[in-house]
Every structure is written in structure tokens, then in C-alpha cells.
Design goal:
By secondary structure, the chain is an alpha+beta fold. It folds into 2 domains: 203 residues, no CATH class; 249 residues, Transferase(Phosphotransferase) domain 1 (Transferase(Phosphotransferase), domain 1). It contains 19 helices and 15 strands. It has a 6-stranded antiparallel β-sheet, with helices on both faces. The chain is elongated.
Length: 557
Amino acid sequence: MGHGLIHRFGSIGDRPDDPAPERLRHRLVVYMGALMSCGAVVWCGLSFAFGFREAAAIPFAYLLLTAANLAAFAAWKRFPAMAFTQVLASVVLPFAFQWSVGGFYATGATMLWALVAVVGTLTFTSARQLVKWLALYLALAIVSGFVDGAARARAVVPVSEDVKIAFLVANIVMISIVILALIFYFLDQRERAVQALAQAKERIEDLRKEVADARQLGQYTLVAKLGSGGMGTVYLASHAMLRRPTAIKLVRKEKVDEATLARFEREVQLTATLTHPNVVTVYDYGRTSDGMFYYVMEYLGGADLGVVVERHGAMPVARCVRILAQTADALAEAHKQGLIHRDVKPANVILVNGWEPDVVKVVDFGLVKQMGPQPPASRADAQASAAEAAITGTPAYMSPEAIDTPGQVDGGSDVYSVGCLAYFLMTGQEVFQAKSWIDVWSHHLHTQPVPPSVRCGVDIPRRLEELVLACLAKSPRDRPSMAELATRLRAFEAEAWAGWSASDAAAWWEEHGASLAADREQHAGALDVTIVARAPGAQASETRPTKLGKVAGGNGA
């Protein structure tokens, strides 16, 4: 209990965001002021006892100054001003008291107090500052040698040998107590540091073991970390026999509950049913011996559309049509299989330089929903299905019905998201921008979008713009189906204005491919993740902007 009170007293000026070294400096200055105050109380008492009433005013004034200084520090948290005031008063106090009484040879022990104060500054100031305080201390000590005789001559009450001995003994005892207190304090800090170091070593050994165990998953060897999110980590891996590069997503069991693991497992199973070349291929999945879920998919060495647009700006209309046609084709097959993606956004559409330039790969079916009748579900599947009634997705790309009635969305929701994606590719901006995702949701529900040609001031073919705005209709009934959208986009590709040829794409990758690869290496950990919020009326999960300005939240890697 006593240790806790001392700790709370030393922490009176701490702020929540102060680092540990800064808090330690705060405590040392506060403790030094408290210890010097104990000495001042003794000096004040002895002075009154021996009749030195004027001299007693000096340590009493120090007590008042220290109390006011610490109170101001507790209220305003201004450490530099408090530290300077406290150290100056602590250095000057012993000298001022000794000069008022006289007797350099007897009361000179008080100067040891000043030396303690100066040395104490070493723990919370720079070497340059310490030299300045030592210079002040030496100057005051020299002055004491000259003024000691004059001070004794002015003494109203003669200083007897008994008084001198009493002050000398009191000073030595107090300084000894202070030194012992400091020794015990630093020994305690050393013990804490040793314990923290031992715990850190144990944790490092555990991490080394985890890394060693995790480097091998069945036939796959982990080669490098590609990125991480709130629920897991993505690694570049290699198959022991096939030697082909793959990407492995690991979902740690301590990061998620069983329902979420069931959702990830369902994502793999449903994604594996899709065979379209523009959907990421899933090779394998399973669980490790310690219960960690993983799945293996093809490694995509390109960049997501969010990165491409951020680095190089809005795309030419002809290129947008080519990319959107592939995206719609992939999602049309998913809809034909009875699956809706529910999280179509730039980060989930990867552009790669594959068998031909500008190949689209739709990834991350982590929020996929199965339409139509389904077989009886297990308990974990039932929990995962219940989560579908929550608001899920990325606010800037969510359909009105995904916000208003999230448990009843169908393929039209993906069409709306593709419309948002098209708008982003053509303008370099999201359809609706606001200070919070609550405001973005409100715009999706009630605000008509500004035509992309008006937004960016670029000529966009009328029929293409009408198609994009049709995808952004508030009612799903007013939107085209995904299959119809894909057909109309493929028809646009045959027109003269949509002539983004393979040679155009190849030239673009020749110019920018290396920089995208370098950027991917540099920002491997900056993963875009998805918000998962509760139903309207309940509190949603916290969101925060990532490096690329997207919304981050609960979905994970």
C-alpha cells in the first residue's frame, strides 16, 4: 500500500500519452522536492528550537514554494518549468540557510544537500544542463567561503558549539537517509527492469518458436511476410513439390471467435467453387495442429486499384471499361453460382500483369453471402449466418440496402458497389465524401450522385455515364443485373472510343510496373480492411484511416 501511495504521488504530473522515460523523470523531480522538504522541516524546527527565527523563514519559504510548484505541475503538467524552479530552489536553499546562520565549518554539511540536488538533475537533464547546475553550485560554494565570517558576525543569537554539532549531526543523518532512499529506489527500478527483461526474453523465445513452427505448413514453406491485419497475416509461400509461389492467409485462433473462423472457412469453400479466370484461385485450406486456420491461394504480384489510382490518378475511360468488364464478368459468375461478394471495392480488385497486361483478379470473398435455399447449418455456421444481419462492407462502396436492410441484400448490392468502383476509376474520387462514415451512409441512402463527367470535368461517353449512374440507383430494381452490366461493358469495348489495346496496357506496365513492385515491398503492412458494424441503432465498431485513406475496422488480413 505504501509503495502504491508513493507511486501515485510521484505520478501527479503524468499525462496518459507520456512515454515511460518521461514519467520516470517526473517522479525523480517530485521525489527530490519531497526529500528536500523533509530536510527543510528539520532545519525549520531546529532553528526555532535554538532561537534562529529569521533563519527559520528560509526553509519555511522553501516548503511553501515546493507545495505551490508541485500543485501547479499536477494541474498544468508543465514539466520543464516545474523542474527548473524545483532544482533552482533546491540548490539555493542550503546555501541561503547556511549564510543566514553562519559557521561554514559546522553547517557546511548543508552544502551536501545542494550537491545531492545537482547530481539528481543528471537523471532528467542533458549533460550540458548538468554542467550549468554544477557551475552554479561551485560559484555558491566559493561565495560561501567569503561570506561565512560576515554572516557569523551578523548573527543576533550566538551560535554555540552544541548548535553547530546539532545541525551537523542532523544534516549527516538526513543526507544518509536520502542516499539510502535513493539506493532502495534505484534497486527497485533495477529489479523491475531485470524482470521486464526476463519476460521480454521469454516472449522473444516464444515468438522464435512460433516463427519456426509457422514457417512450415504441410507442403508449404513460408518465404516472406506480405502484410498483416487485425485477424491474421498474409505470407508469400512456396509448395515443396510444385515450387510455385502462393499466398497463404493465416488466421490466429486467439484473434477471432469460432463463428468468424466458420466464416473464413466458408469463404474458402465458396470461393473454390468459382472457376472464372478473373477470380483469385484457391488451392488449399486447413488448420494447423494448434488450431490456426489457413488457406492457400494464387500469389498476385500486381497492385489493387486503390493503389493504382492513388499513385497515377484517374484512369482513361477506355481502360476503365476494360477493367470493369472483367470485374463484372467475375461477379456475374459468382451471382450465377448463388454468391454475392458484399465487399466490392478498389482494394479487393487486383490488377496484374498476367498472361496479358491488365488482368483483373477479384479477391477477398470474406463477406460473401449465399443466396437461395441452403442445407441445415451447424452451430458455428448459424452464428456466422446471424452475423450477416449486421452492417458489413466498406462505407464508401456500400449499397443503400446493405445499410438499411443488411440481412436482405442480393446481387443488386454488388452492382451498386461496381458502380462506385467505376466512379472511382473515372474520377479518382469516391462517389460520396464526408467527415464520418455515418455521413457517407446517409449520402448513399438519400443523395443523388454528381455525374462523373461533372465531378472531374472530363468528357465521358453519355451511354457509359448513364450505365454507371444506373448502377448507382437507390433502388435495386432500377439497376441492371451483373450479367447485363458485363454484357453492356463488353459491347462498349468494341467501340472506337474504348480502344485500350493490349499494347497500351503493356506500355503502361513497362513504365510503372517496377515502381508498383517497389511500392508493394515498402508498404507490405498497409493492408486495407473492412468495417463490420452492428445493425442500425446499435454502436458500430471504431474506424480509423489507413495510410491510403480507407476505412479500417474489424475484418482483418
